[in-house]
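sry for the spam today, last one i promise. C-alpha cells for design, 163 residues
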C-alpha cells in the first residue's frame, strides 16, 4: 500500500520556541505556528481565518530554531503530520495532529535569516546553515578575465532552445 505524508506551511510563530533535551541528549524544540487563510464570501466580503499548529523540531535543527526563531517571526515549514493520543487527568481520551518539521526556512530577512534542512534518516543536518545573503560579497571575475570567457564559450545558434 502506497502512502504519502507531507505538509508545507507558511506562517508566523505564536510563541517563543521551547527547547528541551531527551535523556540521550537529543535536542527537541517546540513552537506554535499561525497560518492565515483569506477568502471571499459569495457576498463579496473578504474574510480571514487563522489556523494554529503545534510544531516539533529535532536534532541540530532544533538547536538552530531555538537560537534564531522568536514569537511573530515568519517561517516556512516542510514536514509530516503526526497523530498523538493520550488520556488526561480525568481519564478522558484526547488526541491531536501535530507537525514534525523536517525542513525550516527562516523568513523575514536581516542578519538572522537562515535555512536549515534536517534529514531524519541521517539524524543530522544535511546542509550547514546558510550565511545571511547580505554578508556574502559579490563574486565577479576580474575585468581582464571577461574576454577570455567569451572566447571559450561556444557560439549559440539562433534556434537554440535554452533548456
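last one done:
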Amino acid at each position: 500500500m502506497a502512502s504519502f505524508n507531507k505538509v508545507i506551511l507558511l506562517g508566523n510563530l505564536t510563541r517563543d520556541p521551547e527547547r528541551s533535551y531527551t535523556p540521550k541528549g537529543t535536542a527537541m524544540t517546540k513552537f506554535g505556528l499561525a497560518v492565515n487563510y483569506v477568502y471571499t464570501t459569495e457576498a463579496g466580503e473578504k474574510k480571514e481565518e487563522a489556523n494554529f499548529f503545534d510544531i516539533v523540531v529535532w536534532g541540530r535543527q532544533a538547536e538552530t530554531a531555538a537560537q534564531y526563531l522568536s514569537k511573530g517571526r515568519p517561517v516556512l515549514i516542510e514536514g509530516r503530520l503526526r497523530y498523538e493520543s493520550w488520556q488526561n487527568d480525568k481519564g478522558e481520551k484526547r488526541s491531536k495532529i501535530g507537525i514534525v518539521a523536517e525542513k525550516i526556512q527562516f523568513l523575514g530577512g536581516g542578519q538572522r535569516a537562515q535555512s536549515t534542512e534536517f534529514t531524519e534518516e541521517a539524524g543530522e543536518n544535511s546542509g550547514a546553515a546558510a550565511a545571511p545573503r547580505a554578508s556574502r560579497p559579490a563574486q565577479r571575475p576580474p575585468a581582464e578575465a571577461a574576454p577570455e570567457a567569451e572566447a571559450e564559450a561556444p557560439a549559440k545558434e539562433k534556434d537554440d532552445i535554452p533548456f
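Residues 60-68 form the longest helix (9 residues). ok im logging off now
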